[in-house]
Write a structure and sequence with these properties.
Length: 125
């Protein structure tokens, strides 16, 4: 299963496993992952996993402020890969195709691309 680590924004430091085949992210309590960021729409983003559990995709759900993936606006459903950085409102998260037991373990594994053995983690966590 996948996971996301919040690296910047009001929820910075939070870690969420992506357990469902379809995971919604937004301000609403009905979302699978709730982000309490006033710039995040009530239903902002959706992460989908294929039946085999090996491929992920991401789609904006018509949010007011849009979504950014790796610095580019998310205009249509797109593949999601390990290390992709998503900006949702004023919140930045890093996606992993792995699930970790806790935030600290996730942070130690989610390094910037090319930093395999360096101790600097994304967002300085």
């Amino acid at each position: 299963m996948g996971s996301i680590l919040v690296t910047d924004g009001p929820e910075s430091g939070k870690y969420f496993p992506v357990l469902e085949r379809s995971t919604t992210i937004g301000r609403s309590e009905q979302c699978t992952i709730q982000l309490l960021d006033p710039s995040v729409s009530s239903r902002h983003l959706q992460i989908n996993r294929d039946e085999a559990g090996t491929a992920y995709s991401v789609a904006d759900m018509g949010s007011t402020n849009g979504s950014i993936v790796n610095g580019m606006p998310l205009l249509m459903e797109s593949p999601l890969r390990y290390g992709d950085v998503l900006v949702i409102g004023n919140t930045r998260v890093v996606f992993s195709t792995q699930e970790f037991p806790d935030r600290e373990t996730a942070a130690s594994h989610m390094k910037r691309p090319g930093e395999g053995d360096k101790s600097t983690m994304i967002g300085g966590l």
